[in-house]
Every structure is written in structure tokens, then in C-alpha cells.
Amino acid sequence: MTAQPNIYFSREISWLSFNQRVLQEAADRKNPIVERIRFLGIYSSNMDEFYRVRVADVKRKIYIHLDEGEIEKADKTKLLMEQIQEKVVGMTEDFERVREDVVARLARYNIFLLEDEKLSEYQTTWLKNYFKNKILRHIAPILLHSKVNLVSRLNDSATYLYVAINNSGKNTQYATIEVPTKSLSRFVVIPPENSRKKKYIILLDDIIRHNLESIFKGFVDFESGEAYSFKMTRDSEYSINDEIDESYVDKMSESMKQRLIAEPVRVVYDEQMPSDMVRNLKKRLKISSYDSLIAGGTYRNFKDFIGFPNVGRDYLENPKLPAITSNDFAAHNTVFDAISEKDILLYYPYHRFLHVTEFVRQAAFDPKVKQIKLNIYRVAKNSRIIDSLIDAVDNGKKVTVVVELRARFDEEANISWSKTMTDAGIKVVFGMHALKIHSKLCLVSREEKGELIHYAHFGTGNFNEKTAKIYTDFSLFTRNQELALEAENVFNFIQQPYRRQKFQHLQISPINARTKIQLLIRQEIQNVKEGLSAGITLKLNNLDDQLLIDDLYKASQAGVKVRLIIRGMCSLVPGVKGLSENISVISIVDRFLEHPRVMVFENGGDKRVFISSADWMTRNMDFRIEVGCPIYEPKLIKQILDILEIQFQDTLKARIIDQHQSNKYVRRGNRKKLRSQLETYEYIKQQEKKKDAQ
To answer: Where is the Polyphosphate kinase C-terminal domain positioned along the sequence (predicted)?
Structure first.
């Protein structure tokens, strides 16, 4: 299909539409107040990554097009940058309105966010002592002069204060102060003076602002000072010089240094900052015409508010949903006995992630286990899985771990883990330079009755105990030897990409995933033409691969009903007559981040269901190693279909993605209120009760 205008959403604008849905959650007064302020933190964190990755890429393309004399392409990309800027400005205004509403409503629950000008005498005295005893030791101002390259000195994960030091008769001296959130909580709870009912919270930023004299007096001529927050976001892209003969780990470490000195793509500053300070800051940061200079509220780096403390009653945040034990595992002495009986499907965070860590822990000391293979994209800071892999080596088992060093924003942690594992005797494989490894595989090989039997884990999420509490993801545990041997072939492909591997069951990017998916779509088109049952249901994080979108358009034009649940970017335009009128799209944003990738093809009534690590993005299809796995067990197929249907029935947290990206909520009409994440929790709880009763 030849690309036509207006049949694909810009992925950047579509992504901003997704973050608007996050902002909707912060604005929703039905949500507990502490959760609302945390959603503001999530929104802010998302926006940081958007600028580091998406906007940086747009900016880079402008320079490339201009350098190559492609004026038309450069102008088109500049227009996109202007559209991004316009949308971001509007969203920033919305953010500030929501923030003001949240702060005002916190006060109704006797939680007060204090600014320095609102302090009582008691609070001022307490904070001066707190600053002197707890904060000052972490403050190291940068006094700015002609020899200081401010851009190279700033960390884009930090919040800074831009300080003007005034002294009559002399030029204003400027300085920057990093707010030391790495060492201290950004939120300081002031002990009550009288009433214990009222809770007072002040940010580190304001404590520092209130104590500027204590920082500078005696070192510079200081009569008065004023400080305003700002935050810089860099281009997160990096290049690795393959001509230099050095180890892959060393190259990645060097690329981290490149990121630290990369040009800024966004500077957000306090809109109250005087114009002369803004001009000076802009000059110091060498802001170009394609950079984003955005005025905002008093506090920058709002992402810290993800961890905003609940100092009030329990009902000010979401009630906990205790993770559910899988009775398929609980009914057996070992995980291997359980998996030998039948395939097991878990859905986090509803199920306990403990079952995954137990799979690896038991494998680490089981005398019958001979080998463990696992691939890592992102893991927890304190990873029980890696501890178990080290235990496995101590128990004489052969352990191979594939580490993806280029997991964006986790490169440093993965470099450190790779060194720790290598020192422990684990065989660490870094894969291929050209392909990121994003699959979620674990393979345990066990000797049973003189034969080597493989147990495989296929997942849609990372082996990360922390994110498994807030991301929804599927895990399949299977003893199916055909699937397990193909998982073995994935590890072989990573280590020996020049050798041809066979994959009859699995969808492997970049080998056969795109082709297999296209064949499945075409089969649905053929089925509808023959009057057979046809339909496609997809659940993805992102959909922006135009070739696959074109295939979905063709399916729609043929009369195939296509239903999509897309959490983030969706470049497909639904509901266009003659093109996509048979395609409907919803997006769910709620307390858990929807992360699974699921594909369902009607297949003439004999449904084919797959879970996958891959989104339908060009990078996932062509430039990453990804694994999609079929679900063969009928009961597990039903479980996935049931969960998808619950989500399609959501009348509280589902939004419609339409031609205008308006993010309207799905209308409830006469239907009952249904919040799919809570309904899914109850569904899984009931399923486990049925197993327990059997």
C-alpha cells in the first residue's frame, strides 16, 4: 500500500496523546489524592524520556536534512517540531492547573505543601537547623564564569537552582546548585508545632532557597540572592566507535560519557524567573533555535513526586491488592513437578512474581539441573534472580546469561551486573552489536531418567522484581520440548548468528516474526472472503510499524473486525471510511502500567493466541531479538481471552483512540461500572479458588 497523507498519526504526537491520558489520571478527582500527585510524577518522568529520545531524534533529523541539502524534508521535520512544541505548551498549562488543584485538595486532608514565604517562625528555625545539620554537607555550588562550560557540568536526571547573587554596585554573580535528591529525600516532613492533625511537607528546593545566605556568604560578596529552578534534558542517543579496538563493555562505558555531554534538547524553567536571568541561562546553555525552552511552574523534575509520601490516612492512596499465589505451583513440592503436569500461565502483578524467582532459585540447587540460560534487559537493583544464578555456579551448574548493555537508561546498571556475574563465574554474553536483545527467556535443562529435559519461561516483561509489582505482564512456564528446544535455538542464534536456526513455533525478530504475523493477518482476510469466522485482537504497548499497519488496513477493507488495546503510541488511524472503519482502538491507563503484548487471530473459529516481548514497531520487528510464543493449552487460551474481554468492557479507565486523538473515555451508557484492572484481579482470584477446590 502506498503511503498516503493523514493515514498515519505522527508517533511523536501520538505519544504525547498517551501522556495526556496519564495527565487525565492526575486530573481525575475520583482517584485518591496521593495517587493523583504520583500520576503528576509519572507524567513528568514520561516527558523527560520523550525529550531525551523522541524530540532529540526529531532535532537530529533536522540537522541531518539541512546538512545533506534536503530542504523539503528539513522543513517537514521543523513543522513536526513546531507541532510538538505547541502541544507541549498546552499540556504544560494543563499540568500546572492540575498541580494547583491537587495541592489545594491535599490541604483539605490537612496535608500542606509549604513554600518558603509561607513559613512560621517555628518552621523557619527548625528548617535552618535541618539545613545546617542535614543538607549543607551535600551542597556544592558552581560559580559561573567564562571558563565554566555549564552544559558539560549538568546531569539531566537532576534538578537545579539558578541563583543570582546580588551586590550593590557590582555585576550580578550567577551560580547553579544541584538539589541533592540522590542523597536526601526531596520531601521533608516538618515536625508539628502544635496540632498533630496537620502535616507540613516542604521540598528540598525551597529549603535551599530559604538558606542561600548560609551557602554563599563569606565566599562571595552577598547582599541578597534569588533562586529559581530549572532542568535540562539531553539527547539520550549514543554512538559507539566500532573502529576502536576495545571491549564492548568499555565502548558502552564511553557512550555513557557521551550522553553526559550531549547537547540539551529541552530546558524547563520556573516561569517566575526574571527575563535577565532567563537570557543569561539560555546563553550559558547554548540553546539553539531547535531546542525547547519552556516556562513552567515553580518545581522542576516533578518525577520525584512518583514517590510522594502518604503522611495521612490510608484511604488517600489506592488500597493494596495482595499478590495471588498460583495454586498450580503451590500444589507441588517443586516448580519442575508443577510444570511437568501442565503449562502454567501467570499474570503479574496479580500473581506473585515469587514464582519466577523460585523457578530460578530451585534450579540453582536442584541436583538434577545441569544448565541455566537467561537473558537480561532490565533487572531490579537488588536482584534475587542474579543472586540465584551466582548460587547455581557455586553448585557446579553451567550458567549463561545474555546481557543487553544498551537497555536505554539501564546501561550503567547492566554493565555493573555483567562484571559481577563474570567475576562469579557466570558465562556472560553481550549478543550482537547490530541487534538489541529484548526477549524474556529463561531455559533450565534438567537430567531426568538419563535424558536432558528442558523447562522454558516465555514472558512479556522483564525479570525485574520491582517492576513486576506495577507492570502487568504474562509469563508462560512450559515443559513442551518443541517450544523449549526453539528457546535453546534463540540462545544459539545470539551466540552464533551466522548459523541458521529453525523456528517452527516461535515468532523470532528479526528472523521470521514479521513474516509470520503478516501470514496470520492474510489468513484472516482469506477466511472472511470464504465466509469463515475472522477477526484480529491485539494488545500492545506501541503500534507504529507502517507495513503492519497497512496489513491491518487491508484486513479492515476486506471486512475483518480488528480490535486493539494500545497503551502508548498508535500511528494507526481508526474509523476512516474505506480504510479502517472496521478497526477500533482503546487505551487503558490505571494504577498498573499495561505492558503485555498479546495477539489473537480468529482462524476460522480455532483461535490462535500468542504472547510476545515485541511491540509492533519497526525496531522490534527488524532491529531487536524478540520472541513471540504460541499458547497451546486450551485453558490458558481461555484465560487470556477472558482477561482481554474484561479490558474491552472497561467503562472507567478505557479511552477511545479516534481520528482526532481526543482521549474521550469509553461511554458507560446502561452498562455497569467496570474497572478492568480490579475486575481482572477478582477474576484471577476466583480462578485460583476453583483450582484450590478441585
So the answer is: 335-498, 506-677
Quote the Cα angle for 15-20-25, to 5°.
Answer: 130
Digit-coded pLDDT (tens) for 133-149: 999 999 999 999 888 88
Residue 408 annotated in ligand binding: yes
257-306 pLDDT, tens per residue?
555 455 677 888 888 999 999 999 988 888 766 566 778 766 666 888 99
| pLDDT at 289 (0 to 100) | 61
CA atoms within a 13 Å half-sphere pointing along the CA-CB vector of 251:
15
First to last CA, the chain: 53
Q: What is the Cβ-side half-sphere exposure of residue 388, based on CA atoms within 13 angstroms? A: 21
Domain ranges of the chain: 11-240+256-316, 327-495, 507-693
Check if 327-495 and 507-693 are the same fold. yes
Q: Which percentage of the chain shows pLDDT scores above 70?
A: 92
Residue 38 known to bind ligand: no
Q: Does the domain spanning 11-240+256-316 belong to CATH 3.30.1490.20?
A: no
For the cut 80, the answer to whether the pLDDT of residue 486 exceeds it is yes
Topology adopted by domain 327-495: Endonuclease; Chain A (3.30.870)
Does residue 433 carry a catalytic annotation?
no
Contact 233, 20 (CB under 8 A): no
From 438, 454, 457, 505, the catalytic residue: 438
Q: Which residue has the cell 513486576?
A: 468
The mean-pLDDT minimum among 185-199, 286-300, 307-321, 389-403 falls in 286-300
Cβ-Cβ contacts under 8 Å for 193 (sequence gap 6 or more): 120, 122, 123
User: Which residues partner with 509 through β-bridges?
Assistant: 626
> Is 46 annotated to bind ligand?
yes
**Residue 514 labelled as part of a binding site:** no
Tell me which residue of 174, 168, 169, 170 sits closest to 274, measured CA to CA.
174
Mean local confidence (pLDDT), 585-605: 97
Q: Is 567 annotated among the ligand-binding residues?
A: yes
Q: What's the confidence (pLDDT) of residue 226?
A: 93
